[in-house]
């Protein structure tokens, strides 16, 4: 039989047994003919036509827990059988659209059709055994919609062979293993046949793709450029990722590695994330064009990829530089989902860089003039009627409701009100006389300093600018007789920000935070508490994960875990405080992530020897505590761990001349040990959480295990926990 006749029967026939499964003994390709115009839809029998009874009969793809049920297994095979049928019809269309394509290519396509027919026959017979008839549930037309308008054989091998069939390598292997696991050996054997032959189908496509593509570019770059929206490389992967099969199929090592860490939404509109840790400074500046301090700029450049831990694999993270493949692969191997990366150029991103038609949400680290300027470029693609996102870009709304929430004045005022709500545990909280005071001129600053130093007998008083990053824009004084530099600093802050917060410098023993978020429907979702460390300047240094209090004295642990009235420990008090703060934020029309900072300090006059400053700061944004909680989800329960920020200059010495030398040594001597799959958890080792090949100033590391931390401290001389 001639390929033309064979293809016409496959494409236009309406009978499964006699047309779609036509199996000629010999196929030839001698006849010349004109290319056809692609039909709107392929021929199908009633019950298998596109969009037929979709609303009445549509079912979701069965999940893993439903596969013990024979009917559900039959439905899985029904989905697979339709994919085989679509593949056959599209391959028949290729033969009819491109009669002048190389004969070896055309015969290879025909051979693939014959194998797809075999797969479909196996599926149909097994479906019958399981009590499911072909056409019993609706079929989709996604493959057809993507390929029926193809312009060349290159389009076919790119989309069918190297995308849909490549993904089927993963799916057939995954479901083969699942069927074996539940004892369905018959179905598992069928899927094994499909798996083995699918590798050959991909190999056929790869061979021709590499003949036809632009060889001045890499295989990966050529593939990405050849795909047409709405397809992305994410469609070339399944639930698992079979590297070995891809190697057998002839794909290059670089292509396989690139694909393994690639992520993009397959349909769900993504959320866009952006890291702007200088948001408080940007707010204080009050206009676009703010240049952060060098330390904050370094943090932004080195750690912009940290937003990946907050995002999901369907989301987009804006970044100044894409993390390296080996770095991303290590994170992926530890069970972390990877987002899609979109590059920012000089803090500007073109909406054209976002391939998706729609965006579900916009999530900067914090809302500031800079972040709103960046995010507003994506507004044309934003879907839904989210009131907050529709208002946040209006200057009058931002100035009236949001700007003040970032000010330390807000926490200083709110702690007084919230202390009334917590009056049943007043003995745990700061005395009223020790609460922060707000000064609006140099004279009131002087009076408040005198008050805390003389009347309350504190040795040190701290002055804080309303808007300032962690540990910055603050001044500690031990006398009210201020020198000229200190006075100038005070006057400058008063002139630029209008106020200063004056409060005692307590003898802190434990820093704490509580993370939460406010949903669009105004629901407050508590996320969890953290214990964190700061340096002598008050700047963030590390967060404890897993066991958080092992290094503390028994007396302090008792204070933390005691029951107080109706609260089962300090964490419950922080949770209650967080909810009260959330209610305040809702009243101020805020929506999104937030965190509160708190700390425990020594006080000999207190009933328990300690007090809890239950609200020291409000952060209406993402925080490092939130990032730490997300990172901690991949740590095995009961394990001691710490997530630390380290300065690169502190790591370089006679032993390590470069950060690469350091990171190579660490990864070799402190390898990650994981629990059993399918959901691996980190049991021990050190994991870099921003890319050490890109960092210049700040490196973040997850250190898991007490001995690992001890050995790391001994090696580097850096005492994270003192």
From TrEMBL:
CDD domains named among the record's database cross-references: Ferritin_like (cd00657)
Q: Name one Pfam family in it.
A: DUF455
Q: What is this protein called?
A: DUF455 domain-containing protein
Please give the organism: Silvanigrella aquatica
InterPro entries the record matches: DUF455, Ferritin-like_SF
């Amino acid at each position: 039989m001639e390929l033309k006749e064979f293809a016409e029967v496959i494409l236009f026939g309406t009978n499964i047994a006699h047309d779609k499964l036509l199996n000629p003994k010999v196929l030839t390709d001698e006849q010349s003919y004109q290319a056809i115009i692609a039909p709107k839809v392929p021929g199908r029998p009633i019950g298998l036509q596109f969009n037929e009874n979709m609303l009445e009969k549509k079912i979701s793809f069965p999940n893993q827990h439903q596969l013990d049920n024979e009917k559900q297994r039959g439905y899985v095979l029904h989905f697979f059988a339709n994919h085989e049928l679509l593949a056959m019809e599209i391959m028949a269309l290729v033969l009819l659209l491109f009669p002048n394509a190389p004969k070896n290519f055309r015969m290879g396509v025909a051979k693939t059709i014959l194998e797809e027919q075999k797969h479909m026959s196996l599926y149909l017979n097994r479906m019958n055994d399981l009590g499911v008839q072909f056409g019993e549930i609706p079929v989709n037309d996604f493959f057809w919609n993507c390929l029926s308008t193809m312009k060349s054989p290159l389009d076919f091998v790119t989309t069918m062979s190297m995308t849909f069939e490549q993904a089927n390598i993963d799916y057939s292997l995954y479901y083969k293993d699942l069927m074996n696991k539940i004892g369905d050996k018959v179905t598992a054997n069928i899927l094994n046949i499909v798996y083995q032959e699918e590798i050959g189908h991909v190999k056929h496509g790869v061979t021709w793709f590499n003949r036809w593509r632009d060889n001045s570019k890499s295989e990966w770059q050529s593939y990405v450029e050849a795909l047409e929206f709405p397809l992305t490389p994410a469609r070339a992967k399944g639930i698992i990722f079979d590297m070995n099969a891809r190697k057998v199929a002839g794909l290059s090592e670089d292509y396989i590695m690139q694909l393994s860490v690639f992520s993009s939404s397959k349909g769900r509109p993504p959320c866009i994330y952006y890291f702007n840790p200088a948001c408080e400074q940007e707010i204080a500046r009050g206009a676009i064009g703010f240049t952060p301090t060098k330390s904050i700029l370094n943090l932004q450049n080195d750690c912009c990829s940290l937003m990946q831990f907050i995002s999901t694999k369907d989301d987009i993270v804006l970044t100044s530089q894409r993390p390296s493949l080996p770095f991303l692969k290590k994170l992926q191997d530890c069970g972390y989902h990877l987002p899609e990366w979109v590059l920012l150029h000089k803090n500007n991103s073109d909406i054209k860089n976002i391939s998706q038609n729609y965006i579900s949400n916009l999530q900067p680290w914090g809302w500031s003039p800079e972040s709103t300027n960046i995010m507003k470029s994506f507004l044309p693609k934003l879907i839904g009627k989210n009131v907050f996102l529709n208002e946040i870009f209006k200057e009058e709304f931002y100035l009236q409701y949001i700007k003040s929430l970032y000010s330390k004045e807000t926490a200083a005022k709110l702690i007084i009100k919230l202390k009334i709500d917590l009056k049943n545990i007043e003995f745990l909280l700061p005395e009223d006389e020790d609460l922060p005071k707000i000064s609006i001129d140099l004279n009131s600053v002087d009076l408040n300093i005198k008050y805390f130093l003389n009347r309350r007998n504190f040795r040190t008083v701290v002055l804080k600018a309303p808007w300032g990053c962690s540990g910055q824009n603050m001044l500690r004084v031990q006398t009210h007789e201020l020198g000229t530099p200190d006075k100038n600093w005070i006057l400058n802050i008063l002139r630029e920000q209008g106020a200063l917060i004056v409060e005692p410098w307590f003898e802190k023993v434990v820093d704490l935070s509580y993370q939460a978020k406010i949903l669009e429907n105004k629901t407050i979702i508590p996320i969890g508490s953290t214990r964190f460390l700061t340096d002598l300047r008050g700047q963030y240094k590390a967060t404890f994960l897993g066991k958080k209090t092992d290094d503390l004295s028994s007396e302090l642990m008792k204070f933390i875990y005691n029951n107080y009235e109706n609260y089962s420990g300090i964490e419950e008090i922080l949770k209650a405080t967080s909810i009260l703060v959330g209610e305040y934020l809702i009243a101020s029309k805020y929506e999104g992530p937030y965190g509160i900072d708190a700390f425990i300090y020594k006080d000999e006059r207190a009933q328990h020897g300690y007090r809890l400053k239950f609200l020291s700061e409000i952060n209406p944004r993402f925080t490092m505590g939130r990032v730490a909680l997300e990172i901690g989800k991949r740590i095995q329960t009961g394990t001691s761990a710490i997530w630390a920020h380290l300065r690169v200059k502190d790591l370089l010495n006679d032993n390590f001349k470069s950060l690469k030398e350091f990171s190579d040594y660490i990864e070799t001597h402190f390898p990650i040990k994981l629990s059993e799959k399918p959901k691996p958890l980190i049991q021990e080792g050190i994991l870099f959480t921003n890319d050490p090949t890109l960092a210049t100033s700040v490196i973040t590391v997850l250190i898991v295990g007490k001995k690992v931390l001890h050995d790391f401290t001994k090696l580097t001389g850096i005492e994270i926990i003192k």
